[in-house]
Amino acid sequence: MSDTTVLAEERIAAPRGRASSRIRSWLSGYPTLLTYLISISVALGISALLVMMTGTSPWTAVVALYEGSLSTPASVGLALDKAAPLLIVAAGTVIAARAGLFNIGQEGQLTVGATVACAVAIFVPGPGPLVLVLSLLGGALAGAAWAGIAAVLFYKTGVPIVIGTLLLVFIAVQVLFFAVTQPWLLQEAGPEGDVMPPQSELLRTEVWLPHIGEYPGLNFTSGVLIALALAVIVAVLLRHSVWGFKMTMLGMNKLAARRAGINAAVLGGTALLWSGAFAGLGGAVMLVGGNHRLQPGISENSGWDGLLVALVAKENPVFAIPVALFFGVLRAGGGFLASTGVPRYLVDVVTAVLVLAVAFPPAFRILRRTWQARAAARALAQSGKGAAA
Amino acid sequence: MIEALTLVLASSVRLALPLAFAACGEYIAERSGTINISIEAMMLGGAFSAVFGASITGSAATGLICGVLAGLLVGFVHANFSHRLTVNTYVVGLTLNLLVLGLTSFLLDLVVLRPSQVAVFAVPLLSDLPVIGPALFAQRWPAYLLWPLLPAIWYAMYRTRWGLQMRASGENPSAVDASGIDVNRRRREGLLLCGLLSGLGGAYLAVGEVGMFNQNMTSGRGYVVIAAVIFGAWTLRGAMAGCLVFGAADAMRLALPALGVQLNPQLLVASPYILALLAMVLFARSNRSPSALGKPFARGLP
């Protein structure tokens, strides 16, 4: 619809003279770029203002963020590690979103995934690599099961997916907390009579996700490769496979999909399961790739942020790669920020205002269209009145 | 036994009050068609601004007003982003939660807050009633604002033209639009009211109950409020009952160990969400939720 509207606008504008019409059409092509520029500047300006409130110059903060995330090969690796789970979660979110389902419970699916992955890694005997794979699969299955609850509730009883997945997040957090406070479950064993912290024991090193590269140089966990591979696979499947086509069809028009013989409950349910599986895998990767022990705060809001990555990337898995990297860079840089006297929470603020700044221009473009249409209608009504008089 | 009951009841009500104010707001927002996730941000922002305002002016009542304004500001941003611009409401909600959590934690490191609390007002005679007296009639004074607030909201939603338009915006926005009413404007108003009331809830939590601000002080209470509105099947009465039940669950978590009863604390923390899910399963068939809940409105064919 948008292209034809632009064409029509240009055709209307054309009779006013050639040069001016060229400028006009040039301007009408670029205001979005301009609004992007303005809104991102405003976001950065707000962030800079906050930094100045601490008495540090914004430049120092920028340098700290850069040093923490991009200055050395090792810190680049850290940023990659932080980005990987976000990308995995985002790739899964894209699948559900393509099918028109809004899963917002990734945080819960990720938490449950990490919990089950930890249980598998601790309780399943066997050679390290096998247990590692089982642990990742267990995480993915747990995430899928957690999303599956919401899917069953939706397709059997009609509980909206948004509400189902949202409520399950907070139950999942308590499941994790329960698991790490019960000595017979996952809480680490200590000397008799000691009060142990709510966390699991450290996983044995054979089940850690292998590291690529050595410390002073570029090094990151293989979770990064998993994330990249998954994002690309999802992109290819959604674009080039029958499954992806059906999924997109279901998302775009439920009725047409049904006419074409697509079972919404089955296909939509699978989409939701996959999305949960990805989030669960993300949790498992965080556990065996980073923390190596289960703690209540293990998710670090990665579920929520992964969802944001998918939404900022406009539900496009390939575009999610740079967005996740950007989030990862901010997260990695945040650790370095504290040393300059700027609270590390600045990173959350910067992320949030930037998300709003990026969301603003396209939405503003639509709003501007509405305004223009309304003004045109008013002008038309007035000229009509004039003619009548 | 009576003493324990009195104590638990009093602390249930005390814990339910911040939820109750916010639930009034969430109720209005959801009836007009928005699942407002940023309620967490509204409450947290309200709580911080209340203590901040009270620290600067030295008056807890002024702090309360600052809290309300902060909630209103969050509501304003959310309303304009999701119902004037057409940004996905969950993106806006999540982002605002992230923003306010980050901002309040950031500012907490920068400014010095002083504890301040509003005064308790015990209603003469009534507060001496056994069992329910301390729970209902010996609260901090802003708590009594809830008494006029509830009938006022009910009246506004069910006995005024505006209220009908609000509810209709949540049920059948196309019909509302066809009769010449700006759906998104009604929804924006819903979010603004939600911000106002949730800000009050957060402020009450901070300068009413606790008297201080801690990092991430609301810690998910906003989501409990969403659960309460769902649990109450989108009625004001039900939402208040939900708040009371969830307040009681919270009170039990604190009181049961002292009374020597063993009950899993995680189960109690999770109970609001489990109960809300169960309620949803029971209500979903009878279609109690607003039909257009969570669906953005744009003019044209659906």
The figure for the number of domains of chain B is: 1
Q: What are the secondary-structure elements of chain A, in order, as H or E? A: HHHHHHHHEEHHHHHHH
- Determine the strand fraction of chain A and express it as a percent band: under 5%
State the end-to-end CA separation of chain B. 58 Å
The stretches of 5 or more residues of chain B where confidence is low (pLDDT under 50) are none
The topology string of helices and strands of chain B comes to HHHHEHEHHHHHHH
What is the CATH top level name of chain A? Mainly Alpha
Question: Structurally, how many domains make up the residues of chain A?
Answer: 1
Q: Architecture of chain B, according to CATH?
A: Orthogonal Bundle
Number of β-strand runs of chain B: 2
Instruction: Work out the helicity level of chain A.
Output: over 70%
CATH architecture of chain A: Orthogonal Bundle
Explain how this protein is built:
The complex is a heterodimer of chains A (389) and B (302). With 389 residues, chain A is mainly alpha-helical. Chain A has a single domain, classed as ABC transporter involved in vitamin B12 uptake, BtuC. Helix content of chain A is 75%, strand content 1%. Chain A has 15 helices and two strands. In chain A, a hairpin with a 7-residue loop joins strand 1 and strand 2. In chain A, helix 5 (73-98) packs antiparallel against helix 12 (264-291), helix 6 packs across helix 13 (302-312) and helix 7 packs antiparallel against helix 8. The two termini of chain A are 36 Å apart. By secondary structure, chain B is mostly helical. Chain B has one domain: ABC transporter involved in vitamin B12 uptake, BtuC. Helices cover 71% and strands 2% of the residues of chain B. A two-stranded antiparallel sheet of chain B has the order 1-2. The longest helix of chain B has 30 residues, at 2-31. Chain B starts with a helix and ends in an 18-residue tail after the last helix. The model of chain B has no long low-confidence stretch (mean pLDDT 89). Chains A and B meet through helix 8, helix 13 and helix 15 of A and helix 4, helix 10 and helix 12 of B.
